[in-house]
Amino acid sequence: MIDLISTLVFIALIVVTAIQIHSLTKILKILNETTLKNEIHLTRIEKTLEAMETHSISPDK
């Protein structure tokens, strides 16, 4: 009987671990997509600032 309980607990732990790994994978995917979007926005901002400097427009004005 104890072997059965031990086996069920072990299987439950494996299932819980698999669910946690799946959830973490989803979170990491979302974070990666967000990071890529932020990099694109930063690149656009940098290009805009460079263009402003090239045309001697001060961003302070």
Please tell me about this protein's structure:
The structure is a single chain. Helix content is 87%, strand content 0%. It is mainly α. It is built from one helix and no strands.
Number of helices: 1
Low-pLDDT runs of 5+ residues are none
Kindly report how far apart the N and C termini lie: 79 Å
Mean pLDDT: 92
Question: Radius of gyration, Cα only, in angstroms?
Answer: 25 Å
Kindly estimate the percentage of residues that lie in beta strands according to DSSP. under 5%
Instruction: List the quaternary state of the chains.
Output: single chain
Major sheet details: none
Order of helices and strands: H
Share of helical residues: over 70%
Secondary structure: number of strands: 0
Which word captures the global form?
rod-shaped
Structural class: mainly alpha
Per-chain topology:
Elements: H1 2-54
Write out key terms for the chains shown.
mainly alpha, rod-shaped, 61 residues, single chain
